[in-house]
Aspartate 1-decarboxylase
Amino acid sequence: MLRPFLRAKIHRAQVTRSELHYVGSITVDAELLAAADMLPLEEVEVYNITRGTRFSTYCIPGKPGSGEIGINGAAAHLAHVGDLVIICAYCFLDREELPHHRARVVLVDEGNRVGQVLLKTPFDEPA
């Protein structure tokens, strides 16, 4: 049986742009996408820490090193400039794949740049 597991996460990024009249998606600094191993057009879930909202969309790469986190299209109603968000991608795994699974967690600094990359497993001890 396949079950959904966290594959990648960009943690506590700050929204730098929110543009309602744009063809949907979330624009993410290409360096953050690379650190998280997220690909352009990959589906992601976005959790807004500031407002408590959440939505699904897909990634498009922003200028490398820009720190850009842009909320585009209808999702702009759910996240505004200055909001803190978590961006997650998931994968489906069966039990046999779990010992080899490592989720990438990218902690960002105040400028939306890579601060630290953690590798998490389903077997990690609780924090």
The helical segments are 30-36. The two ends are 28 Å apart (CA to CA). The longest strand covers residues 3-14. The chain has one domain: 3-120.
